[in-house]
Amino acid sequence: MTIHDVAARAGVSAATVSRVLNGKTVVREETLQQVLAAAEALCYVPNVAARSLSIRRSQTIGIVLPDVHGEFFSEVIRGIDVAARRTGYHILVSGSHSDAGEMLEVLAAMRGRVDGLVVMAPDVSHASLHRSLPSGLPLVLLNSTDNGRDAITIDNYGGAQAMTRLLAELGHSRIAFIKGPAQNADARERLRGFRDAMNGLGLTVSRRLELAGSFTEESGHAAALKILKTKPRPTAIFAANDSMAVGALAALAESGVVVPSQMSVAGFDDIPIARYVAPPLTTIRVDIADLGRRAFGLLLGAIERPAFAAAGRRDRIATTLIIRKSCCSPEIRKKGEES
Amino acid sequence: MTIHDVAARAGVSAATVSRVLNGKTVVREETLQQVLAAAEALCYVPNVAARSLSIRRSQTIGIVLPDVHGEFFSEVIRGIDVAARRTGYHILVSGSHSDAGEMLEVLAAMRGRVDGLVVMAPDVSHASLHRSLPSGLPLVLLNSTDNGRDAITIDNYGGAQAMTRLLAELGHSRIAFIKGPAQNADARERLRGFRDAMNGLGLTVSRRLELAGSFTEESGHAAALKILKTKPRPTAIFAANDSMAVGALAALAESGVVVPSQMSVAGFDDIPIARYVAPPLTTIRVDIADLGRRAFGLLLGAIERPAFAAAGRRDRIATTLIIRKSCCSPEIRKKGEES
DNA sequence: TACCTCGATGTAAGCGGTTACATCGAGACG
DNA sequence: CGTCTCGATGTAACCGCTTACATCGAGGTA
Fold it and tell me: Which residues contact B188 (CB under 8 A, 6 or more apart)?
């Protein structure tokens, strides 16, 4: 079932069929109808590989993600997918990479298959990224601190500062922070925002109150248990993402510590379930789907108007503080202890 | 940068380069090294579109999903992606379809781009699915009750029965059920399992205790509030998926109803956060990533050995009961009421 | 030496589209 | 009536790779 079959049935040449189907040039109305009828009758669907080869475009963009935890991952894909389909693009996805080498390999395999790439590679060094990326290919980086490439970043720094200030305003001074993976750019920025805000507020940040974490519920759970053993016990926990905050919440519940009266807990991301845990989580909202959407927008610009594609454009996603029930003033906690 | 450039640099023909790169036929060791060196020096990467066109294979499979809620969605993709990459396949994803028509359109657009399809279309009628699917294309259906096609299903019926029996054994007789979308095949099977188990146990199933739901937290939240108003009040809630159970848990907490002592709550799916809500959710585990993995396995079989591809093979994923803290005997509740 | 075999490599015809250019017929115009 | 213009359509080259088949040279055999 090729374009020639359609051409034969319609009594025209393959070129005319192509013209009708692409609608770029003028065709006589009568001819047009014949071709359309023939295509319809034959259930003709163009072969995408052939077209890609010919026009040197695949109408597909690649998405390369690390092994990100569930909700974030799917939201990014959804955001890109919706935007992409609106403009007739398809998406080729590759996630869950155990290591950087594997990710680079995937990147290579996408060559020729995609018109552009959205890459989220918090762990891959800039140097090796640059080396393995087909240089001509439009590219948008997600959450990377790399310069010289188009990139979308989340205002991690500002968000972390806002949350820290909120906790301080509530009266907390001993605030524990559960960190994300050390190589992760988002995690680093959140930590930096926390530290700077603490310092700016004249509060001391003790390294003992900065716990290791890996963005998973398990690590948040473990970190919270450690925090409970610290003397003097902190009055608030700020986790670098919601998953860890959820894990911490579970650990506190198991230990009989009431949130927020005995311990305030804050997260980051505002993943869908954040409002359904008990108590609903105070967090920093990041519109993850919008992140994907804008990444695609930037990429599309680079693909369709290569001339305008000034490498190094940066788009920053704002964050907003979402106050729910998991944080309150430490005074209330004292009351709780008295009773 | 084409195969001819490499050929020129290595002083051989394009055919030889192709042979070296594909390793299918014998090439003299010396020639092989020269070609490899040339390819390396030129950073040559084959053009996938050209290769696909030539061998009529794209080494890519398409995944078409409805707009599924976060965790399930990403787990399925992850399962398929991991399995696919192991065998050198790529995945083309399309999710979040607002309606069946849009989904069919996407299906058409994937023609020629993929070697096979994994489709999860609980809402699309079998008839229209069959019509719009390129007939020659290998296909695996996910969670569909359709016959005559390869398909993977979850043992929704058995799982729902097991959970219902557990609740009955604990002593519950007034059990409310929060349903999923009416058109969703999984949801229907879970409801059927619940009803049959209830009947088998000699318990009455009142339509008033079967609440509408849509697999979202919000709908679970709303349903739980309605359940609390029912007289006599049920002693247990069985939600058709975890997301709704989480929503119900939040509604109960807001209303001051203690789980499990005053109300037992059970879910279905065992999504990652199920163990981190308060109290940890008793649920039915479905290995979602495995679902994806096996779907790919079935598809791969159909692609690589079309002769063996007996349409209509069915693979059923078993479910297991996961007992956590959200369910207990209703007796304890009475005690709670007495105190 | 003539002939055959066989392994390594080159040649060229596709794969299914797109598109620059050629062609052709019909009015417009002098 | 000859020529020019212009719109509609056909022709054929090309996109980059694979592969059946042709070719070629070396070694084996009679």
Answer: B145, B180, B182
